[in-house]
Specification:
6-stranded parallel β-sheet; alpha/beta; Quinone Oxidoreductase, Chain A, domain 1; globular; 7-stranded mixed β-sheet; metal-binding; single chain; 2 domains; 331 residues; binds NADP nicotinamide-adenine-dinucleotide phosphate
């Protein structure tokens, strides 16, 4: 539904961005449907935002009018706590300010990117490399960084065996990034329906999790598993696929608990971990990495009036591989 949201005036350290494209992340769906808890409406979501700078505040040094820029999942943090000081603003101990549904410094509720403009502090605005088309860059601001960060932290690279569970928005970026890092990548998808795509993105192997034989065949195989699934799945079954000292990282965020039997961690000294988006410097590093390796998101561009239909398709795992809204269609 179309509505009008107010943005704050451009402050001395703010950047006004004319949004060109906004990706649809499954988190937008969890959020607007209240799956992660109640929210205040009206609420505009969207945290995969790209566009051009149209105005800058007097003290802005990092961006200039005309620059191609992006905004991801957060628009501020305290900057002072140990985690902010370490460049891990996503883990700000005072809570980072989410791009949507968060209380902004002026007391208003932040509103996301399914909109024509946004005002953001310069420090939370990323540079989008020239070589990446806007629409393919948008999903990097969440799906890209959310998968790059754990792949980088747990050192995916030559000689490591990485599995990606779920080939949706996050999953397809995980495959491309892990392959570009030099890892041997396996996709674990519900069916073999997207096998050709997965192999084209750089995966070496592709298995259907609907087939119980997959779990027997791949037991004790992976150094790192990135679980991007938006619904609860059997963690024990996936943990059994880790080899010695392997780690299963949860990035998918179903509202339900994911129970784990400790015995599934004892074998092979396995770890079960989680990871949330990435820091601002790391997000820039990811954008530059994608440009350098010639990778970006596979997108289906839609008009603003097709968002509800796109949500239904995401819920049916019928997305190849990210819906991106052409914001000109709502201008
Ligand atoms: P998506 O495009 O819908 O992808 C999720 C994929 O999971 C689907 O394409 C499907 O892949 C698989 N899947 C869905 N339902 C399943 C089920 N019942 N059983 C098994 N597999 C299933 O979603 P997304 O945008 O990539 O987001 C994925 C999750 O990550 C969401 O929960 C989102 O909120 C979360 N997220 C977390 C962070 C973070 O910072 N940690 C950031 C962004 C998003 P196949 O068809 O290949 O099986
Ligand atoms: Zn997201
Ligand atoms: Zn902080």
């Amino acid at each position: 539904m179309r509505t009008t949201v107010e943005r704050r005036d451009v402050g001395p350290r703010d950047v006004l961005i004319e949004i060109r494209y906004a990706g649809i992340c499954h988190s937008d769906i969890h959020t607007v449907r209240g799956e992660w808890g109640p929210i205040a409406y009206p609420q505009t979501v969207g945290h995969e935002i790209v566009g051009a700078v149209t105005e800058v505040g007097a003290e802005v040094t990092r961006h200039a009018v005309g620059d191609r820029v992006g905004v991801g999942c957060m628009v501020n943090s305290c900057r002072d706590c140990a985690n902010c000081q370490a460049g891990q603003e996503q883990y700000c101990l005072a809570g980072n300010t989410g791009t949507y549904t968060a209380v902004d410094r002026d007391g208003t509720i932040t509103q996301g990117g399914y909109s024509t403009h946004i005002v953001v502090d310069q420090d939370f605005v990323l540079r989008v490399p020239e070589s990446i088309p806007y629409e393919q860059a948008a999903p990097l601001l969440c799906a890209g960084i959310t998968t790059y960060s754990p792949l980088s932290h747990w050192k995916a690279g030559p000689g490591t065996n990485v599995a990606v569970v779920g080939l949706g928005g996050l999953g397809h970026m995980a495959v491309k990034i892990a392959a570009a890092m030099g890892a041997e990548v396996t996709v674990l998808s519900q069916t073999l329906g997207k096998k050709e795509d997965g192999l084209a993105f750089g995966a070496k192997h592709y298995y259907a999790t609907g087939d119980p034989a997959t779990f027997e065949k791949l037991a004790n195989t992976f150094d790192l598993i990135i679980n991007t699934v938006s619904a609860p799945v059997d963690m024990g079954a996936y943990l059994s696929l880790l080899r010695l000292d392997g780690t299963l990282v949860a990035v998918g965020a179903p509202p339900e608990a994911l129970p784990v039997q400790v015995f599934s961690l004892f074998g092979n000294r396995r770890s079960f971990a989680g990871s949330s988006i990435g820091g601002i410097a790391e997000t820039q590093e990811m954008l530059d990495f994608c440009a350098e390796h010639g990778i970006a998101s596979e997108v289906e561009v839609i008009d603003g009036d097709a968002v509800n239909e796109a949500y239904e398709r995401v819920l049916k795992s019928d997305v190849r591989f990210r819906f991106v809204i052409d914001i000109d269609s709502i201008r």
